[in-house]
Write a structure and sequence with these properties.
By secondary structure, the protein is of the alpha/beta class. The chain has helices spanning 60-71, 84-96, 111-125, 149-170, 187-190, 196-215, 235-239, 242-245, 260-271, 273-276; strands spanning 51-55, 75-80, 101-105, 130-133, 179-183, 222-228, 283-286. The chain has a seven-stranded parallel β-sheet, with helices on both faces.
């Protein structure tokens, strides 16, 4: 009889096989299918009457957060690169909760698109209360010498500059008492020898979170960060070679990767003043038992 790993869920109880996809990846092609639709999540109108913008909201963690926010009563705008099928499915799930969903395709590595995403959200919903900066990219490399300047610049732009541009534009609309949640990574806590550029950007996001939280204290806008460990999302088979996808996440103390549905509730917690009004400038790690000081 095969032992079930700690906290196993139906799809993650099995070994993830080797596989690959073209970037940026699609949910439909993943084996096993991820749990990212928040079927078991029950909202209680924590965000009734509010509007949220989620970058990278088409799939994976972003999709799960979008659906959870909708179940809490928020209208949701999702910005994404070009994953039309995934985005359309996320919109369908948001709308099934009786909420509006605005789709914002385009390259967030372009400053003007970041500004436009914010402005279109406000134009569509008449407000912007919650911002989730989740868009990101990664490209593994065996050594620093294998990272081109173009790769370094692209990773930094998508992961950090996008966050800066979107947040700066959003501050003109976020009300006092609003919330910003950024996505960091376990790699920003302890580094990663094969993702030096990615880990560096995630460390920067953690410090950006803490600094911005201090800056916005007088407005009552709370700024926090979620730093996940391994999570089964389309980005994994779309950026890792097949041999690294096989068994993905099994190195975590929990013995498996997380599902997006397991990560999303932390975003709800940090966005809801009813639950986390005294929390700002924090990086909450969800790493399946990997412990980091500080």
């Amino acid at each position: 009889m095969q032992a079930i790993r700690w906290g196993s869920t139906p799809s993650m109880a099995d070994h993830i096989p080797a596989q690959s996809q073209d970037y940026p990846g699609t949910t439909e092609a993943m084996i096993p299918a991820p749990r990212d639709e928040m079927h078991d999540y029950v909202g209680r109108d924590l965000f009734a009457g509010r509007a949220a913008l989620i970058t990278g909201g088409d799939s994976g963690i972003g999709r799960a957060v979008a659906i959870a926010f909708a179940k809490e009563g928020a209208d949701v705008a999702i910005a994404y690169l070009d994953e039309a099928d995934d985005a359309a499915h996320t919109a369908k799930l948001v709308e099934a909760e009786g909420r509006r969903c605005l789709l914002l395709p385009g390259d967030l590595a372009e400053e003007q698109h970041c500004i436009d995403a914010v402005e279109r959200t406000v134009l569509e919903f008449g407000r912007l209360d919650l911002l989730v900066n989740h868009a990101g990219t990664q490209t593994p490399a065996d050594s620093l010498e294998d990272i081109s300047t173009e790769q370094w610049d692209r990773t930094w732009t998508v992961n950090v500059s996008t966050m800066f541009w979107v947040t700066r534009a959003a501050l003109a609309h976020l009300p006092d008492g609003g919330a910003i949640i950024n996505t960091g990574s376990v790699n920003g806590l302890r580094g990663n020898k094969t993702m030096i550029d990615y880990a560096t950007t995630k460390g920067a996001i953690h410090i950006f979170t803490k600094s911005l939280a201090q800056s916005l204290m007088d407005r009552g806008i709370r700024v926090n960060c979620v730093a996940p460990g391994p999570v089964w999302t389309p980005l994994i088979p779309a950026t890792f070679p097949p041999e690294r996808v096989e068994g993905f996440g099994e190195q975590a103390p929990a013995g498996r990767a997380a599902e997006p549905d397991e990560i999303a509730p932390a975003y709800v917690f940090l966005a809801a003043g009813q639950l986390s009004s005294y929390i700002t400038g924090e990086v909450i790690s969800q790493t399946g038992g990997e412990v980091h000081p500080g």
